Structure formats: C-alpha cells, structure tokens
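User: Please predict the structure of the protein below. I'd like the answer in structure-token form so I can feed it into my own downstream comparison script.

Assistant: Understood. Taking the following sequence of 283 residues as input:
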Amino acid sequence: MAAAVCGRVDVASRDRVERMSPDTLRAYDLVLRAKFLTLNYTRSENAQAREFAERAATLDPKSAAACTHAAWCLFYEYMAKWTRDSGASLQRAFDYAQRAVLLDETDSFAHTLLGIVHLFRREFDQAHTEILAGVALNPNDFLARRYYGMFLAATGNAESGIAQIELGRRLNPFDTRWVPWDMGIVCFTARRYQEAITALKQARNPINEVHGWLAASYAQAGLLQEARSALEHFLRVAEQDMAVFPGRKLANWEPYWHGAFEYQDQADFDHLFDALRKAGLDD
C-alpha cells in the first residue's frame, strides 16, 4: 500500500513539473535556493534569499511559496535590524504574507507567517486567528507549532508555549538550531531561567540574538559574571552586523528587542530590560 501511494505521488509530482512553464520552473528553482540561504540566518545570505524570492514572485505571480518566502526574508530583516528602515521591511513582509494566503488558503505556513507578522505589528487578535488557522490546516507542521508556542508566550501563557514548542521538537527532532532558541525565549518568559540557559546553550551555530537572551537568562539566575560575558559577546557581534548599532544604552536597544519578541504586556518587557540592565547595559 505504501509503495503504491508513493508511486502515485511521484507520478503526480512529475506531471505537475512537466506542466510548468519555463518561468514557473525558474521561480520554483529560485524559491528552493532562497530557502537554503535563509537557513544560515546571515545578513548577506538573507539579502540574497530575499532577492531570489522576490524575483520568483515576479516570474510566477501565482506562486504562494515565493510570496511566503519573500515575507519570511523581510521579516528576518526586520527582526535582526539589518536595514535602517526596519518598519518598511515589516510592512513589506505583511504585504507578501497577505498575498501568499490569498494565493493559497490551504498553505499552513503562509497562515502561520501572516500570524507572526500580525504579532509583531501588535495585532494580537489577528495573529491568534492566523496562527490557529495554520495549526488547523496541518497539525503536524512543526513550524506552526513552534510559532504557536511563541505566540502563547508573547501573550501571557508561556507555560502552554513550552508545551507547543516541545511538540514541535518531537515533530522535527533534527532542528537543533531554531528550537533551542525558541525554547530559551519561552522558558525565560516563564521565569524558568536554568531551563532557558540549558536550551540556549544547546543551539547549534546560534544566531547572535541567542547570546542576548543568554545574557538575560544568566542575569535573572544570579550568574552575573556569565551574564556580562554573554552580553559583551552579543554587543561585539551586533556592532559589526546591525545597520545601526545602538551602543550601550538600554533605551536605545528597546526597538531591537521589540523586533526580537513582541510581548503584549509591558511587564514582560520590563522583566527582560531589567535582566539586560543587570548584565551590563547602561540606563
């Protein structure tokens, strides 16, 4: 039975490819290349991935995958502050994500990504609707589960968020870079600092933001020497990587942390900023 089903899937996939126009095939190839580049989460590779995805969306205006990936790259650009006008990047991510959902209402990741962009626009009700739509369309989508966990933590339910991210980990046990990052944020939000530290330290080839969360987690756990060391590492890399480096004043870093995680409740931001102050940022 399994062999018969696989055979039919292979035939259907081959027939679909054979019906593609040259532009559609080229767009499909560009999306695949963009996905590979995005996984590395570097400024230069994300810019190249965004260029590929946007070219794909132009070549194939009906490609939901191209629009979704363009939105993803622009969202990362916003998060990491790789551009001087990060607000414009978030708006363009929103436009592409909306377009992706209109093109394919059955795509779970398109709904999930639109929900995440709504979250960072502080449109929490719309975010909830879209993320739940993504989970409902594909309950086994590990990315949808991860992002649902992040939404729950951002909106005051970090304990349930931990359960969702753990489910995402079980659905894809090979993700050793992004799951520890997300789990660390949610555990920090839940005030489970040792678990946050353990998770963040498990991240393979971590992005720089991880070192910022690690500094905050160490600080709230009372490990101030480790917190200061992690913060200094974070600042050194950020100075080279960000379009505009905020320096050492905590107030100047607030927009960055709103881009890293958009809490609904100011008390959660105060908790994070208190940790970064303990780690060594100046008032």
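That's the full token string. Residues 247 and 276 are 13 Å apart (CA to CA).
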